[in-house]
Structures are given as structure tokens and as C-alpha cells.
Amino acid sequence: MAETDESPDLLEWFRLDRAGGTRWLLGLGSLGVFVGAGLLGGAFLTHTTDALRSVSTVGGALLLFGLFIAFGGMALLLANDDYLAVRADGILLHRASGDVVVAWDSLRQVRADKRALLFERRDADASDASEATMRIEERYTGATRVELAAHLETLRRKASMAELTFDTVKAVAIGLPHVRPGSVKGRLP
Predict the structure, then answer these.
(1) Whole-number Å distance between alpha carbons of 189 and 178
(2) Helix 49-67, helix 19-43: angle, nearest 10
(3) What is each CA distance from 169 to 8, 158, 182, in whole angstroms?
(4) How far apart are alpha carbons 137 and 148 in whole angstroms?
């Protein structure tokens, strides 16, 4: 018997921004490969066996270290598949610890401060501010926190009027800096 997926289609998603970690790993790995390969090549210009052995050992170690850091680190960064997705029924936060769905009708407002996206919830007890506001401190690609909050707030308002469709998301997404008119076509997976 085939299982069917009951979850709604993703209308739009934003991947977790890993640019800082990626630049650091690739920079350190490239430096190790560059210096290590240079030392290995330079070691053969010397004519003494002691210098050749020590310089080539250091060069080989740096070369292997650079390759390990670059490729191993990138594999670890890419293995983490966290994202924020817009669905017809709400916002999906996909994390390694599990998925969290925040329904559109449970949101009062989506806004941002300097450090986080803030989802103000209707269904939380008003006496406890930490329960009433869900903080998402991660950065997502494609928009700043303020732009993403404004975009999600627009979609929340559209969803409250039952106007949230793929075409609506496509039209609203044109305002984001990473989306050009005509670049969003068809159905997203």
C-alpha cells in the first residue's frame, strides 16, 4: 500500500544562510592547499636531503589539512538542511530537531528586530511574553530579516483573506531583492 503525503505543497522557501561559515572554511582550506603545494614544489628546489624532507613533510601536511578542511567542512555544512518554508496552511520551520508549523490563523503579526524574526502568536497566553512571541534568530538567504518579515506579514494578511496561492506568492516575491520579474515560473517542489 502506497503512503500518501498529506502535507501541503511548499509555495516558497528560504534556506539557512551559511555564507559566513562557507567563506571561512573555503578560505582556510584554500590557504592550506596553496601554501602546502608551494612548500612541496619549493622543497624540490633545495639540494639538501634534510631540508627536502622537512619542507616536503610540512608542505604535504598543509596540503592534506587544506583539502580535509575544505571538503570535510563543506560536507558538514551542506548536510544541515534547515529552511523556512511558506505553505498554504502556514509557515514551516524545518530544523534538524524537527519540523515546526505555525498556522497562519495562529499568527497575530510577523515582524523583525535587529537579531531575530518575531512571530507574535494569537493562541499563546498573553501573560507570558516568551510564549506569545516566537523568536527565530537564524538568518535566511535571499532577504534581510526585515525584508523577510515584511514579506511574511504580507503573505499572512493574504492568507487571512483566503487569497494565498502560488500566483499570489509569486507576485509578492517579486518585491524581494533576490527575485526578478519572470524568474519565478511553474510550481515549486
Answers:
(1) 19
(2) 160
(3) 15, 9, 13
(4) 13
What is the strand order of the sheet 107-112 is part of?
A: 107-112, 117-121, 133-136
What do you get for the CA distance between the two ends of the chain, in Å?
24
Q: For residue 69, what is the DSSP state?
A: I
Q: Report the distance separating Cα 186 and Cα 32, nearest Å.
A: 44
The cell numbers describing 98, all together, are: 524537527
Rounded CA gap, 152 and 173, in Å?
10
Q: How far apart are CA 92 and CA 75, in angstroms?
A: 25
Q: Which amino acid is at 3?
A: E
Dmax over CA atoms of the chain, in Å, equals 80
pLDDT of residue 124: 58
Report pLDDT digits (tens) over 119-168: 988 865 555 555 688 888 888 888 888 888 988 888 888 877 776 666 66
The pLDDT tens digits for 61-76 are: 999 999 999 898 888 8
